[in-house]
Amino acid sequence: MKKLLLVGVAVAALAGCQSDSTVKGVQNYTQCTFPDAPTTEAPAWICDVMPDDLAIGARGYAKKSAAGQNVMRRIAMNDARVALASEFETNVSNMFQQALTGTSLTSSEAASEDVMEAFRDVTKSVTNRTLANSRVIVSQVSPTGGLYVLIGMDKPAYESNLDKVVDAANSEDSELRKQFNNQKTESVLTSVLESMKTK
Phi and psi at residue 131, in whole multiples of 5°? Predict the structure, then answer.
């Protein structure tokens, strides 16, 4: 009976640890060291191994500063958000390019480049205005006193931001729409954009 109780407690304890999977789940993937302290082992996320439950994430860094932890935290968060925005833009542009491949909109290389450039502009504009619901997942001070932060978005936040880009690109007054002057190409564009939506 005691063994059964002990096993039950162990299972309950392990089940309780599941909620920490965001950070702990990635710690065992690879040997990682701090970039600013190469002889010291670091958590895997510092080497860009992202937790499984994040749709997208980025690491930021701030050197040790006499200005204090708050300033360092803001610098590291800004660094991470810039990297996150860049990765988001790349992901969305790649999705658009994949959705666009094989449609009548890509019949000429020049037209395809114009469409992609217009879509990148829309994506950049939306990303610059807001990349909503990204949050600090974890932070870590390095042995040299630098501060690392991991910023990320879960799948619902990522999909919400993706839908904002698609809605902006699909709006009547978007730069992307202004590229097309006939109904056939506009309907193909609408179809491509709608295929990217998550809802």
Answer: -120, 85
Query: What is the distance between the terminal CA atoms of the chain, rounded to a whole angstrom?
Result: 51
Each residue's pLDDT tens digit, 111-129: 556 667 767 776 776 666 6
CA angle (133 as vertex; 130, 136 as ends), nearest 5? 110
Q: Where are the chain's structural domains?
A: 21-196
pTM of the model: 0.71
* Nearest CA-CA partner of 123 in 74, 168, 159: 168
CA 59, CA 37: separation in Å to the nearest integer? 16
Burial (CB count within 10 angstroms: exposed 0-12, middle 13-18, buried 19+), residue 116: middle
DSSP string, 20-42: GHHHHTTTTSS--EETTEEEEE-
Residue 72: CB atoms within 10 A of its CB come to 21
Question: β-pairing, 33-34 with 135-141?
Answer: unpaired
